Amino acid sequence: MSHTDTEILPPETTYAGKTLLLKPERSRLGFVRPDHNKSVIIDWITTVDHKKIGLMYGAIALFFLLVGGVEALIIRTQLAIPENDLVSAERYNQLFTMHGTTMIFLAIMPLNAAFFNFLVPLQIGARDVAFPRINSFSLWGFVAGAIVINFGWLLQALEVMGLLEAAGATAGHTDFVPAMGWFGYAPLTHTDFTGAGTDFWIMGLQILGIASLSAAMNFIVTIVNMRAPGMKMMRMPVFTWMTLIVSLLIVFAFPAITVALGQLMFDRCFGTNFFVVAGGGQPILWQHLFWIFGHPEVYILVLPAMGIISETLPAFSKKPLFGYSIVVFSGAVIGFLGFAVWSHHMFTTGLGKVATAAFSLLTMAIAVPTGVKIFNWVGTLWGGRVRFSAPMIFSLGFVWMFMIGGFSGIMHSSAPANAQQQDSYFVIAHFHYIAIGGIFLAVVAGIYFWLPKMIGKMWKGNLSTWVAIFSVVGLNVTFFPMHFLGLLGMPRRTHTYLAGFGWETYNLVCTIGAYILAFGVLLLLIDIVRCFRSGEPAGDDPWDARTLEWATSSPPKVYNFARTPIIAARDALWEHKYGPESRRITYEDDHGHGIHMPSQSWMPFVASAGFIPLGLGVSLMQAGIPYMGYVAIFGLLVISLGIILWAIEGPGGYHLHPDEDAT
Amino acid sequence: MSDTATAHNEEEDSHAGLVVENKKLLMWLFLGSDCMFFGTLISTHLIYRKLYPQSYDPLVVFDLELTSFSTFILLMSSFLMALAVSAMHKGQLKSFRRNVLGVIFFGLIFLSCQVYEFAHFTNEGLTLSTNTFGSTFYLMTGTHGVHVAIGIFWLLCLYFYSHTGKMDAHESAIDVEVAGLYWHFVDIVWIVIFTAVYLIEYIPGF
């Protein structure tokens, strides 16, 4: 807010019979809300500003991207040569489990959330999300979950150093990091086979689920209710549309994993029989429940990437998105069908012919809307004035690499082929083409596209080209040979292999590729740091872009738009710049009472902090460490206290008067 | 009890959306999510019930009279909840308090019945770990009980809050209505559980 001329009105001001609150409201408990706090740390912890929350999501997610990346590099180094003994089998299991869990839940989902948070209110012309404090709760809940999941690494380090045995606290198992694979199949998750790591995983995922659910509901309400006048549903930017669809997927898919994790926790802590064969339970039930969540989760990860691409391609082709409505509709169909294909992860479990055929067909069907989208992107490029700026290079990389991942995906949909590829490196190749060739490249395109808007500084130089070269070459060198490895029969999740199967060369090539890719990511981080430190001022609309977020200043002021914009067309800013008079953006009249801003709050942070003792307490209680039940109860009390105080303090608020250069 | 912030003042903005208020829409979304939640719990129960038809006969422990009674009580609490919401809309604070206390009282009766039922079943030898029936039954009905308990706590907060003088028909009706939505949902879920878990056992050969 430094360059915002926020003029505070004299205290007597009233408007429409109501006194305006000019200072931060004193809460009903007598606390002063932490608005305009002098301490930068307190300001960021208690912020309810969707832009700051988005930036924090992004920063934390990039950190976990590095953590997951280092885990992947250790995995690849271990596999570089046959019979390598860099890490033990047990450590290897922990590494691939945490690599998957970290990348999916702590890197990609929060990276997407960073874009949702920063962009959606700007794209629909809103002041903030519908529930700013719930937004803050989602962020800190995510951090709490991340801490709980990764806490095992600390204990494992202590155990390796021999400090835990001295404390007499190993209680049978000596593994403290999840080691049963990111989908946690029963019966591996039973207490007979895994220790506290599984409990950290259960509690951590449960907490992340709560954070994701609250964020998703918040975004749906925001998109449905908070759009500026004239921003009809079919005028919304496609990224906002994809946010809406992804949020709906989260709302309806996460309960399945919540229940499954709850049942698993009861199995481990209280002796129930949900997945315990000896007690009559069925391990396959876990697979069904997990994938009923897990397959929509795939689309939760990839649809925002498609949204990003649907923004960048039109902007850098100087053309509207080809077939806007069909792209939106295809996104909705993908989301809907995503709930009907979960069993294609389970073809080899013997579902029966009818079920296998049905799920096989539905899986093939889902390729149709995806293909439609690809053709629409190509149609957008066709005849456009294409500029090869950094976001465009990554977007084109996305279309190409994502298609390769899509092709191997269609191969999986055929049940007989699937039976051959199941649990082999072919599957690894497939979903890494989606995850890195698709989602990662799209997210990088998004970073190159929107970071100038987020921080108001423009990229320096051409490092982005080298980022693109190293990451695209690296990912292909890493993952393309894995197709062959899979077809040659190399099983996934194997910590080493013997020479003589023809796997040696491919594995070595994969490892070299992984380091090339890692170098690309390193260059990306260097480029981001350079942009932060020494970027030139970006201006409001550096790319000559199309959508509403580019109509406000860079970085956007705390209130987003000084006056509420009135939208008259899709691609609002483009029409405003180049369209007829009737389709320009106009602004509502100034009401003279300023902009109502919500007060900052400690309570979401307090409530989320309670998740840490709750999660750790339950996990360690199961591991047999004394008094941990009380720690869990303490955590519950903190959560309840936070929520009650949150309710009592009320939204609060104050009014800002922006200076009137307002556009 | 204004529990979430809306970023905008009502009079200062006109939006394209806003057919349903923010808080109400949020609650509807939560309930949609909760539907999937209970759906998963109930299907787990029905799947295991179908897989092992001979493993356990719940009629040994079930007491249909007691459960019917508590179901009826919960239904009636929903009726009182509707009256409380209506009273709040009209700004009749006294009537609101009376009805909310009634809901809380009925909810507590329901919970007591459940506690009695759990204790009784445990004495009869059905525990969490006896078999899959015990596991699914206790987790499902227990989760529902926790929902009722949270609802009671919520209504208690609203009741005490109504004594602070900060509640009026204009500001607080929406808060009460959202709590009401939650309560009715918990009630409806119980109707499904009562049918799919209790009554179904009395149909021969089903």
Describe the model:
The complex is a heterodimer of chains A (663) and B (206). Chain A has 663 residues and is mainly α. Chain A contains 20 helices and 6 strands. In chain A, strand 1 (14-15) and strand 2 (18-19) form a beta hairpin. Chain B has a single domain (22-53, 67-202), classed as Cytochrome c oxidase, subunit III, four-helix bundle (Four Helix Bundle (Hemerythrin (Met), subunit A)). Chain B has helices at 22-51, 64-89, 93-123, 132-161, 169-198. Chain B is elongated, with a radius of gyration of 20 Å. The N and C termini of chain B lie far apart (47 Å). The model of chain B is unreliable at 1-14 (pLDDT under 50). Classes of the chains: A mainly alpha (663), B mainly alpha (206). The interface between A and B is large, with 66 and 50 residues.
Write the layout of secondary structure elements.
The complex is a heterodimer of chains A (663) and B (206).
Chain A: E1 14-15, E2 18-19, H1 40-45, H2 50-79, H3 89-123, H4 132-160, H5 163-167, H6 196-225, H7 238-270, H8 283-317, H9 324-337, H10 353-365, H11 367-381, H12 390-413, H13 415-421, H14 425-455, H15 463-487, H16 504-534, E3 565-566, H17 572-578, E4 586-587, E5 595-597, H18 603-609, H19 611-622, H20 628-649, E6 654-656
Antiparallel strand pairs in A: 1-2, 3-4, 5-6
Helix pairs in contact in A: 2-3, 2-4, 2-16, 3-4, 3-6, 3-8, 3-14, 4-6, 4-18, 4-19, 6-7, 6-19, 7-8, 7-9, 8-9, 8-11, 8-12, 8-14, 9-11, 12-14, 12-15, 14-15, 15-16, 18-20, 19-20
Chain B: H1 22-51, H2 64-89, H3 93-123, H4 132-161, H5 169-198
